[in-house]
Amino acid sequence: MVEHARDSSPREALRALLAADTEPRLRRLVHALSPREAAILIESLPPGRRELAWELVDEEDEGEILVELNDEVRAQIMEGMESAALVDAAEGLPLDDLADLVADLPDDITERIIRSLDEDERELLQSVLVFPPDSAGGLMAPEVVSVRPDMTLEGVLAYLRSHPELPEDLYCVYVVDRRRRYRGVLQVRDLLGGAADARVSRFMDTEARPIHCDTSASDVIRQFRNIDSSVAAVVDDEGRLVGQITADDVVDALQEQTDHEILGSVGLDEEDDMFAPVAVSTGRRTLWLGLNLVTALVAAGVVAWFKPAVERVALLAVLLPVVASMGGIAGSQTLTLMVRGLSQGRVRNSNVRWLLWKEIAVGLLNGLGWALVVTLVTLGVFSNLEVALIAGAAIAINLLAAAASGVLVPLILRRINIDPALAGGVVLTTITDVVGFAAFLGLATMLLL
Amino acid sequence: MVEHARDSSPREALRALLAADTEPRLRRLVHALSPREAAILIESLPPGRRELAWELVDEEDEGEILVELNDEVRAQIMEGMESAALVDAAEGLPLDDLADLVADLPDDITERIIRSLDEDERELLQSVLVFPPDSAGGLMAPEVVSVRPDMTLEGVLAYLRSHPELPEDLYCVYVVDRRRRYRGVLQVRDLLGGAADARVSRFMDTEARPIHCDTSASDVIRQFRNIDSSVAAVVDDEGRLVGQITADDVVDALQEQTDHEILGSVGLDEEDDMFAPVAVSTGRRTLWLGLNLVTALVAAGVVAWFKPAVERVALLAVLLPVVASMGGIAGSQTLTLMVRGLSQGRVRNSNVRWLLWKEIAVGLLNGLGWALVVTLVTLGVFSNLEVALIAGAAIAINLLAAAASGVLVPLILRRINIDPALAGGVVLTTITDVVGFAAFLGLATMLLL
User: Fold this and answer.
1) Mean pLDDT value of segment A282-298
2) How many CA atoms, within 13 angstroms, populate the side-chain half-sphere of residue A426?
């Protein structure tokens, strides 16, 4: 039944909705989806039909679905909602989700929502809102349970039992000193498996490293992979416990980071609506095309510079794209390895020089090998030994330049605070195009004219 | 201190090691690293120096570090280890990690390790080993605690207390029926916060969906994002509980999937050693260069076909790369959105037609806009109206072709079971090169010759 709801086309869904008696059924189907599934369903509909789907959502699910929607679609849906409905949707959300939502709400609604919280909740919400959303403080949930090291396990259990509202994500209990400074973690298995009269200090794990609240999302991901745990404490400057990050938040953060890098590398944004109107999408794509046109014109300028050679030997024009693209491909391989190595900490100051020489050696070997192939193919097909040799030489040169650029471009971009994952490809292919064209046509001009 | 160990160059580390009295200090520094940090440190060293770093590793950490190493480096290190050391390293590993390691061990060592396990452990290990490593069954940890719905919370606590060895990742307790079929989850917060004499059935969450053991890693990631929890039960064909997947395993799986897609798109493998010897790396890169050469030669063939036009008007050669690259860039944007939309479930049968028309409309608008710019630039720089108009027309045609290919190529590749994330780029740029060259030179041949 759920399958049916997911696969049916918006048009069918619409038609079904119009036949009034099926509405309760559709409502049940949408209700069976998780908030994220419902969000993706809504995002998959063209803008005009989204309101219809939103109508089918249970009021109590609205808040969680809004949190899952991408920024653009969320703004669209919230625009159509009454203030009272927005306040209702926000109420009852976990505080870290509420913090994400509040950033996008009009001030008067935020105020009404904050007024609906009790004092403790208000304080916790405040503690999340002070951090940027892509920091450890912004990712964390502030609701945690903490105990003192000199309590007995029995005491901890009694304390938990008397706690008015335990957090949903209770995967461990944190140990703090009297000034709330983080001291370690008491795992559930030790809490439940240990002797009742034993002290917390005997069982707590003091090696579990906390994460500082200002840590960037990408460093949170890296630290999480290092600690190999499903949960980590977040501490402030004074080392005081302020919240916890669970691995499911890290999964979301990692997916967002990946989307950001992959879409960013073609000039797009992960929060954009894939189903936005044509005019909006056209505008978003056009800037990147303009940037590419500039780099393409630079490469074209090199060809223009050597136009006399092409006028004399038109075969050069045939082989131009081959020389340039072999360099682009080889360079992308090195660049991709470097970007990944940098982000995962495999590439360090101490081994960059070694890597540069290695990549140059690989470029040289592959350059010579493929130069030979291109020379033979050109000779065989066009029976022009001179052009064949020049093409081979140009490929060898371009593969060397590609290897060096593949290592150096990301390092230089990083030094000037540009993300190599986003800009590396454009810079690199500009270099390999220019070097390829210049080497090929330059050699031809020297030797053939 | 730890920072120092991470940043010091291999050469310095080596030198320090040779001065015998610092060895204990280095050993302490390495010991302070998490297994993954130690693995990355070892991977960051050129092959020859890795054994030296391995010598510094505490024996008790060896197993966990081996698990974290990439396949190639792990094989290298294990080759240098004695059988007894391998057995020692494997002992004491969590069973899901052990299962990963066992796949790479020689049979006689595997046998010795299995003999060192008690019967329960052996059975659990077996239950993981039957699944491929990139399935839910392969990702899961088999050690879980399960209770029956008619137990009281007090009874559950007493059962846990009497349990000889509770799993490390005890984040919840699973509820099963008498045939071990999954019924729901009892959260720690409910177990600890509920009334002692209340039944499990009153508190258990029956909406938490289990994951089937045959689910692929990429579907596990998707389902995990949907359920928004840090842990999920894994069940077999009969719905029986066989283990659990925690979100930190999902973080690793997602990172691996991302690496696989990003490296795969330039013909590389995420398990390859970035610091492999030059000859090995050259061999690995060369195949992809060869494939690219074939596609480049196809594009060159198109230019060769229209060589008379280039012979007559060399300016055509100057603008060729511009026409081709504008198409490549526009097509990559659409392709990237499609691949991501397909993998996240946003692109469905029901909206593909809508998307195709939308992308074509975007391509048309951007094509006309940039065609005008290129026409004006060409006219301004080269004062050749005919070529300027032909270049503009070719760009408009190529952007349309790019938009259609960007939508259709990933759909077709997926239909024939080729991962669009890996092969989409090559196919797409071949199309935009060929269409760009053919449109530009074809029009020129018709209008100028």
Assistant:
1) 95
2) 24
Q: Say what the pLDDT of residue B302 is.
A: 96
The CA radius of gyration of chain B, in Å to the nearest whole number, is: 30
- Secondary structure letter of residue A216 according to DSSP: B
A231 inside 8 A of chain B by CB: yes
Give Cβ neighbours of residue B394 (< 8 Å, ≥ 6 apart): B323, B436, B439, B440, B443
Work out the pLDDT band at B12, boundaries 50, 70, 90.
low
pLDDT at position B9:
55
Which H or E run includes A186?
strand A182-187
Q: Is B32 on the interface with A (CB under 8 A)?
A: no
Among A201, A165, A164, A196, smallest CA distance to A186 is for A201
Is B169 within 8 Å of B246 (Cβ atoms)? Answer: yes
Chain A contacts of B11, Cβ < 8 Å? 350
> What value does the CA radius of gyration of chain A take, rounded to a whole number of Å?
30
Residue B59 neighbours by CB distance under 10 Å: 9
ipTM: 0.88
Residue A309 near residue A449, CB atoms below 8 Å: yes
Q: How far apart are CA B262 and CA B276, in angstroms?
A: 19
Confidence of residue B403 (pLDDT cuts 50, 70, 90): very high
Phi-psi region of B347 (alpha: psi -120 to 50; beta: other; left: phi over 0): beta
- How does residue B169 score in pLDDT terms, banded at 50, 70 and 90? confident
Which chain A residues are closer than 8 Å to B345 by Cβ? 40, 44
Residue B133 and residue B257 in contact, taking contact as beta carbons nearer than 8 Å: no
CA atoms within 13 A on the CB side of A272: 22
In chain B, the residue whose alpha carbon lies closest to the alpha carbon of A170 is B189
Coarse DSSP helix, strand, coil percentages of chain A, rounded to the nearest 5 percent: 70, 10, 25
Describe the strand order of the beta sheet including A231-235 as a list of residue ranges.
Answer: A211-212, A231-235, A241-246
Interface test with B, best of A174, A293, A343, A360 (most B CBs within 10 A): A293
- Residues with Cβ within 8 Å of A416's Cβ and at least 6 positions away in sequence, in order, are none
Stronger pLDDT, B16 or A191, i.e. the higher one: A191
What confidence score (pLDDT) does residue A17 get? 53
Q: Do A225 and B274 touch (CB under 8 A)?
A: no
**pLDDT over 80 (residue B16):** no
Q: Where are the alpha helices (DSSP H) in B236-277?
A: 247-264
> Is 60 exceeded by the pLDDT of residue A238?
yes
Whether residue B20 has pLDDT greater than 60: no
Cα B7 to Cα A306: distance, rounded to the nearest angstrom: 47
Name chain B contacts of A290, Cβ cutoff 8 Å.
Answer: 370, 373
Q: Which amino acid makes up residue B371?
A: A
What is the tens place of the pLDDT at every residue in B420-439? 999 999 999 999 999 999 99
**Half-sphere exposure (CA, 13 Å, Cβ side) for B85?**
14
For residue B143, the SS3 value is coil
Condensed to tens digits (0 to 9), the pLDDT of residues A394-444 reads 999 999 999 999 999 999 999 999 999 999 999 999 999 999 999 999 999
Half-sphere exposure of residue B401, counting CA atoms within 13 Å on the CB side?
25
Q: Choose among B35, B67, B208: nearest CA to B141.
A: B67
